[in-house]
Design goal:
The chain contains 17 helices and 13 strands. It has helices spanning about 15-25, 30-40, 45-55, 60-85, 115-125, 130-150, 170-180, 190-210, 245-250, 280-290, 335-350, 365-370, 390-410, 420-425, 430-450, 450-460, 465-495; strands at about 5, 30, 85-90, 105-110, 160-165, 220-225, 230-235, 255-260, 265-270, 295-300, 355-360, 380-385, 415. It has a 5-stranded parallel beta sheet, with helices on both faces. Helix 1 (about 15-25) packs across helix 7, helix 4 (about 60-85) runs antiparallel to helix 8 and helix 5 packs across helix 6 (about 130-150). The longest helix is centred in the C-terminal third of the chain and has 32 residues, at about 465-495. The radius of gyration is 28 Å and the shape is globular.
């Protein structure tokens, strides 16, 4: 059940490379065009979605729901095929519909721009200028499609494990190199990978079922699954119909239980160790209550793949390795951590703020970023205790790097757990600060407007020394008043829940 995802552009050689690689490995080869045709046959208007993106039209509510159905269809199809056997998928960004799967080999294929222009001129009979405009337009449309559906940059090399330039490399040799790379331990299947695939498949099937049921097809929901526990997050406007969700999912196999939670957005909480006695839990519940959000927990196992030396001689295509696969089995966690995680989740369920729970074997900020679902509507990301096995200095540095990387890529506020209360909750100290600064701002305001004549005379008093004093007074007074009034206003808006 190995998965190789090849991201290709127009006439970049990605299709030929994918087909050659699949033939060498003995894997099934699946293209985006095949998935698009199958989705269209299933009643998903992929053509309308693409036209809306190409014409730069914002997706209306109906098309936004169809976008979710399309993503769920692609995820379900890839997971079903992968669970049956190893596959090579070539399209735009197939790995983005498989969040959390660390073993996917992600390859981007590029070609010399001049060579692409020559191929367009030859195949379409266009002159060079028109061929160049054609390629620029197609590349721009594809980049906009990826940005619209997944909220990421198609050209970001950080999205891929390898970028293959076919300008000076023949397809057969490139495929031979990828064969060897695909056999590295980092891209083999472990029990935790298989369970992640099953969870993704279950969540995608549930989303498709909700989208096809007449009672729930117009509900904007987000579905996740963890070990058979399906979490369905719906908007407040659908609160009266939430009892329809379990009924619509009755026919889906593999569901152990269903948790329905109402939220307009999600707060993502990332930690290695969850503790029900952590004060941050109450703070997160308060923030989620103010924002009407669900708290999604992402537990980092902090376990890295232990690479082993590859075989000296290439072997014929073979099935995926046994359960250990030369990789440390990261499926099991200590019982105490499981109990703590369950206790934290129970607290969130009791508060009505429980989102999904996921465990990700990540040990770096980039791995965490790759494991996230970019289409999820996060409004806040909270970084708790991470990199716990490092010394204090390294932990501080790596945590700061994670905060910066997630903030830059997700474009939402990302804060450390210790700063949550100060930035998003109203404490007694902030009450005092707001009242004192408000009183100072009001006093400064009244003094100026009740003594306008003396102030005016002071500002226009002749003489060089008097003018210097007037400038210094203005320079000192204006920032002081702006600080007092601005801070008072910010705290007042926070008190009134205008974050």
């Amino acid at each position: 059940m190995q998965i190789v995802c090849i991201s290709r552009g127009t006439l970049a050689g990605g299709r030929a490379l994918a087909e050659k690689l699949a033939a060498k490995l003995g894997y099934d080869c699946l293209s985006r065009e095949e998935l698009t045709e199958a989705a269209t046959r299933a009643g998903i208007p992929v053509g309308k979605l693409e036209m809306a993106v190409v014409r730069r039209r914002p997706l209306d509510e109906r098309l936004a729901l169809e976008k979710d159905r399309y993503q769920a269809f692609v995820t379900a199809t890839l997971c079903e095929r992968a669970l049956k056997g190893s596959i090579v998928y070539h399209g735009r960004t197939g790995h983005l519909v498989l969040p959390g799967l660390q073993h996917v080999l992600r390859v981007r294929v590029i070609q010399d721009p001049e060579r692409r222009v020559e191929m367009v001129m030859e195949r379409l009979g266009l002159d060079r200028a028109k061929a160049l405009r054609y390629l620029e337009q197609v590349d721009e449309d594809r980049q906009r499609w990826v940005r619209t559906l997944y909220g990421t940059d198609w050209n970001d090399p950080g999205q891929y494990d390898l970028v293959v330039n076919l300008s000076n490399l023949v397809v057969d040799n490139a495929a031979a190199g990828l064969v060897h790379m695909s056999r590295l331990p980092e891209f083999q299947v472990t029990p935790v990978v298989q369970r992640t695939l099953q969870d993704l498949l279950l969540a995608a099937r549930c989303r498709l079922q909700l989208g096809s049921d007449q009672r729930t097809r117009d509900m904007d929901v987000r579905v996740t699954a963890q070990d058979g526990v399906v979490t369905v997050t719906y908007l407040p406007r659908d609160a009266q119909r939430q009892e329809l969700l379990p009924a619509a999912l009755e026919g889906v196999e593999g569901i152990a239980s269903i948790l329905c939670t109402m939220a307009s957005t999600n707060v993502l909480w990332i930690q290695e160790r969850f503790d029900p006695a952590n004060p941050a839990l109450d703070q997160l519940i308060d923030v989620a209550g103010k924002w009407n959000a669900a708290v999604e927990m992402l537990q980092l196992t902090g376990e890295e793949v232990e690479p082993e030396r590859a075989a000296a001689e290439p072997s014929p295509p073979a099935p995926a390795p046994a359960a250990d696969g030369g990789i440390l089995d990261d499926a099991q966690a200590p019982a105490s951590e499981d109990e703590n995680l369950a206790a934290v989740r129970q607290r969130l369920i009791e508060a009505g703020r429980a989102g999904s729970v996921r465990r990700v074997p990540a040990s770096s900020a980039r791995q965490v970023l790759n494991a996230l679902d970019r289409s999820a509507p996060y409004n806040l990301v909270v970084i708790g205790e991470v990199f716990c096995d490092k010394n204090h200095a390294a932990q501080t540095r790596l945590t700061a790097e994670m905060v910066g990387m997630l903030a830059e890529n997700l474009r939402v506020p990302v804060v450390e757990q210790k700063d949550l209360k100060a930035q998003f909750l109203f404490s007694p100290g902030q009450w005092v600060r707001m009242l004192v600064l408000g009183l100072l701002a009001a006093t400064m305001f009244l003094l100026v407007f009740t003594h306008q004549l003396p102030v005016g005379e002071f500002l226009v008093k002749p003489g060089t020394s008097n003018r210097i004093l007037a400038v210094l007074a203005v320079v000192a007074f204006v920032p002081a008043f702006a600080f007092c009034y601005g801070t008072f206003t910010r705290l007042l808006l926070r008190l009134l829940r205008f974050e």
